[in-house]
Amino acid sequence: MALFSAFSSDAGVVLFALAGARRRRTWTKAVTAFACAFVCLGAEAIEMSNRYRSPRNPERRVRTSTRLIVLHTTEAPARSSLNKVSDRGECHYCVTESGQVYAIVDRDREAFHAGRSMWQGAEDVDKFSVGIECVGYHDKAMPQPQIAAIRDLVRELKAMYRIQDHCVVCHSHVAYGAPNRWHKVKHRGRKRCGMLFAMPSVRRQLGLTSRPAFDPDTRAGRLVNADEYLRRVLYGGVDTMTAVYGARPPPTISAAPRAPAVAKKPVAPAPKPTPKPTPKPASTPKPVSKPATKASVAVATPPRSVAELKARGYVDCGTVTKERTAIKIAGAAWKSSQTYYTIRDKVIPGSNLDQAHIEKGMHVWMRK
Ligand SMILES: [Zn+2]
Predict the structure, then answer these.
(1) Beta strand pairing status for 314-319 and 224-225?
(2) Region of 61 on the Ramachandran plot (φ > 0 left; ψ -120 to 50 alpha; else beta)
(3) Are the C-beta atoms of 31 and 64 separated by less than 8 Å?
(4) How far is the centre of ligand 1, averaged over its atoms, from the C-alpha of 72 (Å)?
């Protein structure tokens, strides 16, 4: 799409109007876009600030393709987040809690946001993605004005680069770790950055109707899974934001007002973010707390048979082989007391096993 930016009298505020064919910038197009900037302002413009434009911008290469939109959480308050991403040129946009969008690096250039990363076998995701940093935390709900701004920005970028919903991913989808003392091979789970944006309740708020169905790189054996909790958030049924966002449909945006306008509407009171005392996931994540069920009541007596495992909601996640180790199957949870191994009618919790005692042919059971 042709792009036009007009500096308003308020220095630093840029109006990006998106119109016409993709990324052509002839004068004719600019004039057309200029007209459109004012005609279509309500429908197709996002107001953003240039105040934290990165000094790194001019030195960054222009990308040759754009296949993904990667959402991040800054894990820090707004001021320090903006200073950091600007100084280092770490994203294309940064969205604050109030819904203010800052342009950091030109969106057609490479921003260094994904670090060591891989998706569908392609390394260095920075080369083919747009990165959006959202001020906030990977496990905390964001206020409605911010969600609305992210939604509008993502919608514009999706249209501009023809990106489908399942190609709007989180940093944690694409980041991977190099071999280290805990994981002898390349592994997924280096970061939980942006994790909440994989949760269905949050994606609904962002107007996204799908997400990646599986990890293409662990499935192909290029990486192993090293964070089972993260895997369940990204691809399973873990959604810790339903208490905040619920099944409530996202606010109507048919007229597509600019994000701050949606935010300031006094009509729909924004749900208070994070009333939940969710514990910060530490390096050894606990499974999400569930309402008391038979299984959680029965914690004192561990399951003693396959039938009992099944009755408690465990599923057979695979059999240990020479190539398919327990870590490959269960990730970081391989040694968890919530992971069970069965062989020859024995049921053994992961916490009772060390690597030397894991036999080929053992079945690995985990709760879905
Ligand atoms: Zn990140």
Answers:
(1) unpaired
(2) beta
(3) no
(4) 4
Contact predicate 14/5, CB 8 Å:
yes
Name beta bridge partners: 45.
17
> Of the spans 229-233, 279-283, 288-292, which averages the highest pLDDT?
229-233
**Cα-to-centroid distance, 181 and ligand 1 (Å):** 23
**How far is residue 137's CA from residue 140's CA, in Å, rounded to a whole number?**
5
Protein residues near ligand 1, an ion, with CB under 5 A: 72, 171, 193
- CA 158 distance to own-chain centroid: 16
Asked whether 185 and 224 are in contact (CB, 8 A), the reply is yes
Cα(40) to centroid of ligand 1, in Å?
A: 33
- Residue 234 Cα to ligand 1 middle (Å): 15
- Beta bridge pairs of residue 347: 342
In angstroms, the CA 157 to CA 63 distance is 15
Give the whole-angstrom CA distance, residue 326 versus residue 319. 8
Q: What is the pTM of this model?
A: 0.61
Average pLDDT, whole number, for the chain?
Answer: 79
Distance (Å, whole) CA 159 – CA 169 = 16
Q: What band does 247 get if pLDDT is binned at 50, 70 and 90?
A: low
Following DSSP, what letter does each residue of 29-70 receive, concatenated? HHHHHHHHHHHSHHHHEEEEE-TT--TTGGGSPBPS---EEE
Sheet architecture: strand order including 176-177? 176-177, 187-188, 224-225
User: Tokens 């592994």 correspond to what residue?
Assistant: 187
Which range is most confident: 75-89, 314-328, 342-356?
75-89
Q: Report CA(175)–ligand 1 centroid distance (Å).
A: 8
